[in-house]
């Protein structure tokens, strides 16, 4: 696939660091010292709280190495972290990137990974201020730790949803999982539908500005990013807040493209929208009186669709969905990394 | 080695998280929200800068799985991060732990890793406030990201050493590499020497309090933790500061135990002390007039030996060592993870 001369082992650790350490500061204002010391030295804005999250991706589990996908993999792992910061009501600031590389990894693949991370970093103003590069005998490993900042009274927890709150989701649900299903099973669907879904899978758009718009327009009580499917995320909010939830199936934002894949694959649209996961959309619970203002602000300020998909209920009602006139229990069925892989 | 029922795959991801998420906050004062949300929410003390560092360790490269070493591996990866914070003049505060586990990893081994991390966390007052658990098909992977805090005027960079500054190191050099050399090659040396060196390898003591004592007693201009050997670290300081350095071989703090291993292995004590690496001691450059006060403060306040091993020179002199009356260039020869492994 690649020529031998293009392998990491020719560079050694320090050569690799030299290759990747440039142009990693996008917004250097609060960086006192970045790469090149034992730790990064950072200034934290007064009156703001610090957010910290991390995601690890491993070759064969989360991605496969392919000549054309280094940049996508890099973008995606950064975006997954940004999505976590979005769901907390924050803005991302600084990242540390650890990478474990096989000795035969093509240098250009590593460069592509960093290009993808930078593509995402530029979009959200993130500095890469440090990291670790090590040898990995079998699988390429990428771990990103992302810091963010949030105003003292604006951070969003899973545990603050109240009965009566509206449940709002950003964007469309199921695009990412329909995209991957289509790629894996080579379903034939119209070309523009195909590229839309593949893009939604490879380049998810963390909802930083959408959550900010929502918080500017009304009282958001809780939030979660939709990485494991709406079903799983709602159960997390319900469990943390001690509440129940009711979802209206007909209100779920399902794209025309997902409906098309659903026809060809024979899988229900529910499967993609509720359990598919990895959309990196955000589910928010919002005070009922602010519902309209929040939806309108998100759509006007960001151009992203916002949909009211249900309502928070008392704990005793559990997590349910109304579909075709029937109210049924909505299973968790979130994406469990181990059970899916094993 | 282990029974099958004791494997991670029986637990699944969420079961594993449940198992490890308890008792991870050692000093919860500045933790607004820890594990259980998309990101940790942390308070940063006013007037202090934030430090952030990360280290990745991969099975087969940095450790091998053995019934008795889970706790040691956990301690060591946390200690490696603490050492980076020490070298910046800071105190560690919060950690995020990512772990990639094989489906057949014994649950008790994962528990032991966390026990080891907690052992180190308790010692240095560190909260584990988040992380990621994923499946890894071949090798166990641990990534720790550690945050710390440092007073605005007290952070230490590699780049501020000046000609004339004294070079001071904490503790003894080469103990860790002599320990691992002894384990790998099964050298026979007296039992108490053996256990001292093995302990120095498995349970290194990051020099948080020693650097604080030094900074309290005089002007420390630059610092580096000794993870890749003194030779390599001095080259880093010299290169970053635009200076040279002269080391007096006879002043290097080499333990009786390393001298004993050296006799049996036939390797010079230099090899262990200058190039062996992973001691997690700290090398500091200190204003000449403060040298005595710094050495005395470190030894009195912490009980750790502090040794003046050389002096910073002009850049044109390079990095040199005086040994047996001869002044010779001190090679970098640091531990390069790739070239060593490949």
Terminal Cα span of chain A: 29 Å
Number of strands of chain A: 13
- Strand-pairing-aware structural class of chain A: alpha+beta
How many domains of chain A? The number is 2
Helix and strand run of chain A = HEEEHEHEEEHHHEHEHHEHEEEH
- Quickly give the CATH architecture of the largest domain in chain A: Alpha-Beta Complex
Mean pLDDT of chain A: 91
- Hey, roughly how much beta strand do the residues of chain A contain? 25-35%
- Assign the CATH superfamily of the largest domain in chain A: PurM-like C-terminal domain
Percent of residues of chain A in helical segments?
25-40%
Rg of chain A, Cα atoms, Å: 21 Å
Low-confidence stretches of chain A: 334-342
Largest sheet of chain A: 7 strands, mixed
CATH class placement of the largest domain in chain A: Alpha Beta
| Silhouette of chain A | globular
Q: In terms of quaternary structure, what is this? A: homodimer
Task: Report the largest inter-chain contact.
Answer: A-B, 76 and 76 residues
**What's the total helix number of chain A?**
11
Helices and strands in order:
Two copies of one chain form a homodimer.
Chain A: H1 12-20, E1 31-33, E2 40-42, E3 48-58, H2 70-86, E4 91-101, H3 107-124, E5 127-135, E6 141-151, E7 166-170, H4 175-185, H5 191-202, H6 208-217, E8 220-226, H7 230-241, E9 243-248, H8 256-265, H9 269-275, E10 281-286, H10 291-302, E11 306-314, E12 319-323, E13 326-329, H11 337-341
Parallel strand pairs in A: 4-5, 9-12
Antiparallel strand pairs in A: 1-2, 3-6, 4-6, 7-10, 7-11, 8-10, 9-11, 12-13
Helix pairs in contact in A: 2-3, 2-6, 4-5, 4-8, 5-8, 6-10
């Amino acid at each position: 696939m690649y020529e031998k001369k293009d392998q990491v082992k020719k560079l050694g650790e320090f050569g690799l660091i030299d290759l990747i350490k440039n142009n990693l500061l996008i917004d250097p204002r609060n960086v006192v010292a970045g790469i090149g010391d034992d730790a990064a030295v950072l200034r934290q804005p007064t009156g703001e709280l610090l957010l910290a999250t991390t995601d690890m991706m491993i070759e064969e589990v989360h991605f496969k190495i392919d000549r054309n996908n280094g940049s996508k993999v890099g973008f995606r792992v950064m975006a997954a972290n940004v999505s976590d910061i979005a769901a907390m009501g924050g803005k991302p600031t600084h990242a540390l990137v650890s990478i474990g590389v096989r000795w035969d990894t093509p240098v250009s693949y590593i460069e592509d990974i960093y290009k993808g991370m930078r593509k995402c970093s530029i979009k959200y103003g993130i500095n890469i201020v440090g990291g670790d590069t090590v040898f990995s005998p079998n699988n390429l490993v990428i771990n990103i730790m992302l810091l963010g900042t949030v105003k003292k009274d604006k951070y969003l927890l899973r545990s603050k949803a109240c009965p009566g709150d509206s449940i709002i989701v950003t964007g469309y649900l199921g695009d990412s999982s329909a995209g991957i299903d289509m790629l894996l099973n080579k379903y034939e669907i119209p070309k523009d539908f195909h590229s839309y879904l593949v893009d939604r899978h490879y380049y998810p758009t963390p909802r930083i500005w959408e959550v900010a718009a929502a918080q500017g327009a009304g009282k958001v009580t809780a939030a979660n990013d939709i990485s494991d499917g709406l079903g799983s995320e709602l159960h997390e909010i319900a469990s943390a807040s001690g509440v129940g939830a009711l979802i209206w199936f007909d209100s779920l934002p399902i794209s025309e493209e997902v409906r098309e894949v659903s026809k060809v694959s024979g899988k229900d649209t529910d499967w993609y929208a509720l359990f598919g996961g990895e959309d990196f959309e955000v589910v928010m619970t919002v005070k009922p009186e602010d519902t309209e203002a929040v939806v309108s602000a998100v759509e006007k300020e960001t151009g992203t669709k916002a949909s009211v998909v249900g309502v928070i209920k008392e704990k005793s009602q559990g997590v349910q969905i109304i579909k075709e006139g029937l109210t049924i229990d909505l299973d968790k069925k979130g994406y469990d990394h181990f059970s899916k892989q094993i």
